[in-house]
Write a structure and sequence with these properties.
Strand content: 15-25%
Largest sheet: 9 strands, mixed
Structural class: alpha/beta
Helix content: 10-25%
Number of strands: 14
Radius of gyration: 18 Å
C-alpha cells in the first residue's frame, strides 16, 4: 500500500493501525533500507510503515508487506511531525520508530516476538521501553567508505556512561538519565551537544494528549524514565549505523577519521545475548 504524502496516510491509511504494535521506519537514504525492513518485519510488528522519498527503491520481497508513505526526511522537524501525526491519528497502540540502517534487538529476540516483550511490560504497568542506540561501524573504512557493512560490523564493548538529567533549575529529574557512549562520545567534537545522547524511548504506548519532542523525549515525564520506582525494567537496543554513516558523510569530519575501530572494538554477532553480556540492554524481571 502506498500513500503520496503524510496527510494522505493520516487521513486514509492510519485507520488500519488500530492494532499494534506498529513500526515506523524513517528512511534518510537508501543505505540498508531493505535490511532494516526485513529485520523489523521479522520482529513481529503488526504493521510496518516506511516513510521514504519516492525515488528510494524498496526490494520486491518486502514491498508488499509494508505501508509506504512518500516523505522527505530532510524537511525541518520531519521526525516529530510524522510521529505526532501518527499518534493523533491512532488510538491505544504501541508504536516503535527507527531510521534506516537501524536494527532493534530486545532480550531473547531470537525466540520471542516484540509483542511478547510488550505484553510483559504491560504486566509491569510500564507504558514505555527504553532503548539504547548502539553504534555499529564497518571494520575497514577503506573497503566501505560509507562506514556501513553488515558482515564486518563492529561495536564498542565499553565506554558507556550515564548522567542525571536536570530540570531547568538544575535539580535531578526522578528516574531520568542521559546516556552516552559509542561514536558520539569518541568523536564528540564532531557531534552537536544535543545529539550526543544515545538513549531513545523508541517503543511506547500511545495515549491521548501525548506529544513527542524533537529531542526524543515526551511531554509526560514518566515516559522519559528508565525504570519504574520499585525495580529495574527491561531495556532494548537499537544497533545503528546512522552515526558512523553521518560522520563519514559530513565533510567536517570525514577526513579526520581514518578508522572507527579502537582497542575496545569487537565484531557484532547480531545476537541479543552479546548485547546482554555487555550490559547494553537488560531483561529486568523477564526470564
Amino acid at each position: 500500500m502506498h500513500h503520496d504524502d503524510l496527510s494522505s496516510f493520516l487521513n486514509d491509511g492510519a485507520a488500519a493501525l488500530k492494532k499494534g504494535p506498529v513500526a515506523l521506519i524513517f528512511a534518510e537514504d537508501e543505505v540498508e533500507l531493505d535490511a532494516t525492513i526485513r529485520h523489523t518485519l521479522a520482529a513481529g510488528f503488526k504493521h510496518t510503515v516506511v516513510f521514504a522519498m519516492p525515488v528510494f527503491s524498496i526490494a520486491e520481497d518486502v514491498a508488499d508487506s509494508i505501508i509506504r508513505v512518500s516523505y522527505n526526511m530532510l524537511a525541518p522537524g520531519a521526525l516529530e511531525t510524522a510521529v505526532n501525526g501518527v499518534m493523533k491519528a491512532t488510538g491505544d497502540i504501541w508504536i516503535y520508530y527507527c531510521y534506516n540502517a537501524e536494527f532493534l534487538f530486545h532480550p531473547f529476540c531470537e525466540h520471542r516476538a516484540v509483542g511478547e516483550m510488550i505484553a510483559f511490560n504491560v504486566e509491569e504497568r510500564r507504558d514505555t521501553i527504553l532503548t539504547y542506540v548502539i553504534d555499529l561501524y564497518a571494520g575497514d573504512l577503506d573497503a566501505h567508505e560509507n562506514a556501513v557493512n553488515i558482515e564486518t560490523a563492529h561495536l564498542d564493548k565499553t565506554g558507556y556512561y550515564a548522567l542525571a538529567r536536570k530540570d531547568q533549575w538544575n535539580n535531578d529529574l526522578d528516574r531520568q538519565m542521559d546516556f552516552f557512549g559509542g561514536l558520539r562520545w569518541r568523536f564528540e567534537e564532531h557531534v552537536p551537544a544535543p545529539r550526543r545522547k544515545i538513549d531513545r524511548v523508541a517503543l511506547f504506548r500511545n495515549k491521548p494528549g501525548l506529544v513527542f519532542n524533537a529531542d526524543h523525549t515526551f511531554n509526560d515525564p514518566e515516559y522519559n524514565t528508565y525504570a519504574c520506582p520499585w525495580h529495574h525494567n527491561l531495556t532494548a537496543a537499537i544497533c545503528s549505523f546512522r552515526t558512523a554513516k553521518a560522520l563519514k558523510r559530513n565533510p567536517g569530519s570525514t577526513f579526520d577519521i581514518q578508522s572507527f575501530t579502537w582497542h575496545n572494538s569487537i565484531p557484532f554477532e547480531w545476537h541479543s545475548q552479546q548485547l546482554l553480556d555487555l550490559g547494553l540492554m537488560e531483561p529486568g524481571q523477564w526470564f
